[in-house]
Amino acid sequence: MPIPSSFTRNTGLLLVLLQIAFIHALSAQENPEKFRKEVDQIVTNTPVPSGDVYLFTGSSSVRMWKDIDRYFPDVTVVNTGFGGSQTFELLHYAEELIIRYAPHKVFIYEGDNDLASGKTPVTILNTMQKLVSKLKSKLPETEIVLISPKPSPSRWQLKEDYESLNRLLEVYADKTIGVEFVNVWDIALNEKGRPNPEIYLSDSLHMTELGYDGWAEMLEPHIP
Q1: CA-CA distance, 99 to 109, in Å (whole number)?
Q2: Strands, sheet with 105-109, edge to edge from the N-terminal-most edge strand
Q3: Which of 25, 42, 162, 166 is found 20 to 30 A from 59 (Cα to Cα)?
Q4: Is the pTM value of this prediction over 0.85?
């Protein structure tokens, strides 16, 4: 029995509409301007200090490190973490959140939310390379430290992707002048090789003070 032409046309139209809806939804998810208000507030509330600045930026694991200056009392620390951000969003706001401060050294934590959103390790690396290139162009004297995405119980199913991304970031840092890599993955694991529940909040994603103690221990050698 032949399929009526009207059915075929309607089905084709439905598929087109679904594709358009998907593209719009994806565009909304990938719109970095969703953080504009938060970024503007950071800029307003975080003046540019004098002297050598050690700047920490990236997603919520940095944003929630509220007492970071307590860990590094001998230097001037600025925290411009925002979101749940992804690497492409930090690239978008690099002028406001990094370059305007002309830091002596910048510590970047991104990739965590990228992986959770479905991006591949290679895609994330490519975006990180664009960010680093932009910083090197605008701030040739600034040293760059890439902090490895951490493990967390809520995203443990992505373990292999995290490990792959961390390997890519480490190799990239090793071969790039002025870029360092700090591994905070291993210190977050217990004796069974799984995320230590003691260092996570109830959301099984963000860290307690104990988790930040571990980060500070790994980062301290990179802060004179």
Answers
A1: 16
A2: 76-79, 53-58, 105-109, 143-147, 179-182
A3: 25
A4: yes
Query: What's the whole-number mean pLDDT along residues 183-195?
Result: 98
Residue 41 token pair: 């507030």
Q: Which CATH number fits domain 34-222: 3.30.70.20, 3.20.20.70, 3.40.50.1110, 3.40.50.740?
A: 3.40.50.1110
Q: Do residues 124 and 114 touch, judged by C-beta distance below 8 A?
A: yes
Q: How far apart are CA 10 and CA 79, in angstroms?
A: 53
Domain boundaries, the chain: 1-30, 34-222
The predicted-structure confidence for 50-82, as pLDDT tens digits, reads as follows 999 999 999 999 999 999 999 999 999 999 999
**Which residues lie closer than 8 Å to 86 by C-beta, 6 or more apart?**
59, 110, 113, 114, 117, 119
DSSP lists the bridge partners of residue 5 as none
| Rounded distance between C-alpha atoms, residue 48 and residue 72, angstroms | 18
In tens, the pLDDT along 20-43 reads 333 333 434 689 999 999 999 999
The alpha carbons of the chain give a radius of gyration, in whole angstroms, of 20
